[in-house]
Amino acid sequence: MNLSDAVGGAWIGGTVDTTGAVIAASDIISDDAKQVSAIVKMLQNCLIGPICLIIAIWYNYTHTNPNVKVSQTLFGKIRGYVWMLWDRFPKFVLGFFATSFIISFCMEYDDAWKNNTLHLALNLGSWFEV
Questions:
Q1: How many Å apart are CA 121 and CA 118, to the nearest integer?
Q2: How large is the greatest C-alpha to C-alpha distance in the chain, in angstroms?
Q3: Which one, of 3, 28, 2, 25, lies nearest residue 12 by Cα?
Q4: pLDDT of amino acid 29
């Protein structure tokens, strides 16, 4: 198709579903295509959350049920949006934040605690994979 490496990588990064497949497919073209496709795929992954949030708020704002009494004050609307977000928020993300905090700040001080925690995490991970 006579596409440049950057354009080919951008097309692959934007159309292929999984990040590993994006890297593998674009590496066939060139290293530059691989770099561009990885950037495009990472941007896609980063923007999906905010875009879904905007769509959810827009849909909730424009398609409210007329039979449900909603507070018309600004505070009532904001409170409704916050509860909608909390209900739809994937709670496992909080676990990722907690794990990241523990690994980033608590584990750098004590090597024994670090080794025990990593061993426990590996055992739990293998147990949950079964």
A1: 5
A2: 60
A3: 25
A4: 93
Give mean pLDDT in consecutive 10-residue pieces for the chain, a chain of 130 residues: 90 92 93 94 90 81 63 69 80 83 71 80 80
Structure tokens at 48: 């999906």
- Looking at residue 92, what is its pLDDT? 84
- Residue 32 is predicted with a pLDDT of 93
DSSP secondary structure string for all residues of 55-82? HHHHHHHHS--TTS----SHHHHHHHHH
Letter string b/e over residues 32-68, b meaning 16 or more CB atoms within 10 A of that residue's CB: ebbbbbbebbeeeeeeeeeeeeeeeeeebeeeeeeee
Sequence-distant (≥ 6) Cβ neighbours of residue 106 within 8 angstroms: 113
**Are 37 and 45 in contact, with CB atoms under 8 Å apart?**
no
Q: In sequence order, what are the residues at sequence separation of 6 or more whose Cβ sits closer than 8 angstroms to the Cβ of residue 129? A: none
Question: What tens digit of pLDDT does each residue of 13-24 get?
Answer: 999 989 899 999
For tokens 């950037």, the residue is 39
Which tokens sit at 85?
A: 């977000």
